[in-house]
Amino acid sequence: MARGGDISGAEREVQKLASLRDSLGQAKNKYWAEQVEVQHRAASALVARAQGKSQEALNLLRSATDLEGSMDKHPVTPAPVVPTRELLGELLLELNQPKEALREFEGTLMAEPNRFRSLFGAAQAAERSRDTDEARALYAKLVSLCDRADTQRPEFQQAKAYLTQ
Asked: What is the residue-averaged pLDDT of the chain?
């Protein structure tokens, strides 16, 4: 909602996350309360960015990333749908900080190898940092991972176009 321009709707959803976090905390379910807090901070960061509060958004996402990184993953839960470190990398790219973004995407790829969005983000960050060798290697890896895909995502097309330059 925040990225789509519905800031008030996003704020309502952030409040729901806060209520859920509080309920879990009152139930003394610390693990899940902290998991929801990560999502609360990340969503709050997206709202702050949509409101033009870039530094607040960065602070919130860094805080969410730190909290997410400090917790052990519950053995029966999957990996995060969108790791906060990946969101932080995307925000840093938006804010024209590609070297910092590259570090965040690389951190995500260490924990979760071959994530499409992190590979693409890292390649973009390397390209914008004028590290052509790293950009080429990352785009090549992305193309290799997707060479049998049944659809052609725009990111895949961009990676192939970069490699043919």
From this structure: 93
